[in-house]
Amino acid sequence: MTAESQQKRVVVVGAGWAGLGATYHLAKQGYDVTLLEAGPYPGGLVAGWKTAAGRSVEAGIHGFWYPYRNIFALINELGINPFTTWTRSAQYSPAGLEVESPIFQDLPRLPTPLGTFLYTKFQRLPLIDRLSALPLLYAVVDFDNSPDAWRRYDFVTARELFKDFGVSARLYKEAFEPMLLVGLFAPGEQCSAAATLGMLYFFILAHQADFDVVWCRGTVGEKIFNPWVNCIEKTGAKVLSQKRVTDVIVDSNNRATGVVCGNEVFEADAVIFAVGITGMKKIVANSSSLQNREEFRNLNNLGAIDVLATRLWFDRKIDIPRPSNACFGFDATTGWTFFDLNAIHDEYKNEPGTVIEADFYHANQFLNLTDEEIVLIVQRYLTTCIPAFREAKVIDRSVIRLANAVTHFAPGSYRYMLPATTSFTNVFMSGDWIVTPHGSWSQEKAYVTGLAAANSVISYLGAGQPAKILPVEADEPHIQAARSLNQTVRQLSKSILPDFWLP
User: Where is the Amine oxidase domain (predicted)?
Assistant: First the structure.
């Protein structure tokens, strides 16, 4: 901690993974940090709260995957133990059980992607269909998360990508599109091929163990964010909820000097935005200083996806083979997941009945239904997967509608996503929709970009030590060799072939 950093004021907007990460590191470096959260609790969309009956709920269940190296390092630093052991997952369709996944790290490690291919247990999908994915490996090699790779693939839909590389219709319908519906939260014709390749590689294809996942043993708000916020406040940072940002004050030198929340002004030497795309668009809509910049006006070209999070308490114990389950084929453009909270959450270990979390993504058609109608649909879908739910009675419920809640990585959206730096010299961006070379996704990406924004502040203000950001695990040697060869061929072809208009 230095005298210089103590004199510098930083305002962080948004108290999710990105904002808390930036705040925590800057506060440890001695900065005067104020974290502003529009909602009633820190945590953004993963903040938990209590129902009227005192039961814990949250806005959907979030897994913590094997490649989340930076989040796991944070958990160790905080000295908390919020996670289950590694769990197995299953996948259902209206026809029944489709796929079971092992704990991949417990099996002999094979070169990527052989482990994923050989160890995943498909119940119905023929081998010939699975083999049709082999030509897609070229796209996986060609997409290296560079800006050029994003531009090459971002204007193509995921559906076009899989079709062009010869993936069978059945493999697409029963394997790849279900991954998109619960990974990018939209059907393939609405997803960028670039985002698809990035997501699939990070979570499934880069290394055999990448698909292994643990779950929080309660709400993320209670198990992780509450102790984390306590640590942040002990460093001297201020965490203020129900502070909705409406403008940024900018001086004649192109610097932000303060953040406006209604009638309040929080003075700042640097500002970090750490909100989702929907929240950022609302801020821009109210801010003349941000609307004056094309990069912020262009955010209106980005979109978000509706989520429905339900939690049902049943009157009896029901045997659920796997704690986490993804489902497809129930609605043409909607994916959903269900979780056995008796197996995952500490507070339901000894519950006399069964507690299920069922979350729906791209859930546009459900949001206007009544709670009663939604509960009937959820129970019918659960019964299709596990028939014992037919006789069970719902004795309590929670239905949370989350309009425009998660980022939509639509085709062509990359050009409108913001990098970490902006046209303001001291305004920095973070979040799971920010352009980053790190290669991570989802919560890990949000946290990493928060640390990167903190490092940008440290570089700009000239005080403190930068946060150590752990890189994603290096590509295996055969992937590195293939990418190096592919890059050489690309450079050679550029030198001897015309510059076609398509990227």
Answer: 18-458
